[in-house]
Amino acid sequence: MSHQDLPPLIPSPLPRLSRPYVVLSWAQSADGQIATRTGDSKYLSSPESLQVQQILRRDCDAVLVGIGTVLADDPRLLCRLSPEANPRNRQPLRVILDARFQTPPEASLCKTTREGPVLIIGAETQPSNNAENEAQRKDEETRIQKLLALGLEVIRVPIEKDSVPSRLKLDLRTVLDRLYQRGIQSLFVEGGSAVLTSFLRANLADRVILDISPRFIGQGIPAVRDLGVLTLPEARRFKTISVEHWGENVVWVMDALS
Ligand SMILES: NC(=O)c1ccc[n+]([C@@H]2O[C@H](COP(=O)([O-])OP(=O)(O)OC[C@H]3O[C@@H](n4cnc5c(N)ncnc54)[C@H](OP(=O)(O)O)[C@@H]3O)[C@@H](O)[C@H]2O)c1
């Protein structure tokens, strides 16, 4: 496939929603793992199917990952398509779900703010009445100031009610509301496992695009974890839109059944 005729992967026009249209896409092994148990995920995509990620970064207004992916892969999340394939050099707003503002100042995202904006979404401050929490809050404020000085934007949203202190989950509906308020009409959720699971669990995926490699990993990092599904009627259901070979990988596009 030449760079000129890379196909669109999101509908045009987008369906009318009062939140961004959400596309989940990831590369996985045939047995559903997005990385080995040591965290190696480079490259489950074929050279051809790697373009899926690049097209989505070009065509969606924003791309979102969790802090786990930032720490594991240090991605830049920029569109690297050639000028012929991305003539207006469109770059997405890069969004990180990072409840406790742990994005390292030396991360590639922090070094590329001139190439496109980066938004860190953290948790609203929790009420505290002990000295240890107060010290943590001060450390967090110091980390935020460093990120702001590097040119990143920072906002806070509430956490989900079922969050545990060791793993704070940001409320995704509020995240989407805040993105929509700033004009984001389409959002590419790129990973990792915890974030993909949260979007599916909350029924917030409009389209899923799987980039499937013909290899088996066995025990690794599964793309999707517990969705709370106990019986088949509770499973999240999608309808197939297309299935194509992109090099040795199969790219499977599916839409949520409404
Ligand atoms: N093959 C692919 O296409 C692909 C793509 C991306 C990533 N990956 C792989 O995925 C792995 C990382 O996945 P991961 O599950 O460890 O991390 P992740 O999903 O990238 O990030 C999870 C973290 O995001 C924060 N978070 C905030 N709100 C959340 C919410 N509502 N739901 C879920 N998480 C929320 C939490 O941070 P706190 O714990 O601080 O609260 C959580 O621990 C890496 O190995 C990476 O290589 C593969």
From TrEMBL:
It is an enzyme of class 1 (oxidoreductase). It comes from the Bacteria. Pathway: Cofactor biosynthesis; riboflavin biosynthesis. The keyword Oxidoreductase applies. Keywords: NADP, Oxidoreductase. SUPFAM superfamilies: Dihydrofolate reductase-like. Residues 20-251 form the Bacterial bifunctional deaminase-reductase C-terminal domain. Its EC number is 1.1.1.193. GO terms for biological process: riboflavin biosynthetic process. One of its GO terms (molecular function) is 5-amino-6-(5-phosphoribosylamino)uracil reductase activity. The keyword Chloroplast does not apply. This is Riboflavin-specific deaminase domain protein. It comes from Gracilinema caldarium (strain ATCC 51460 / DSM 7334 / H1) (Treponema caldarium). The lineage of its organism: Bacteria, Pseudomonadati, Spirochaetota, Spirochaetia, Spirochaetales.
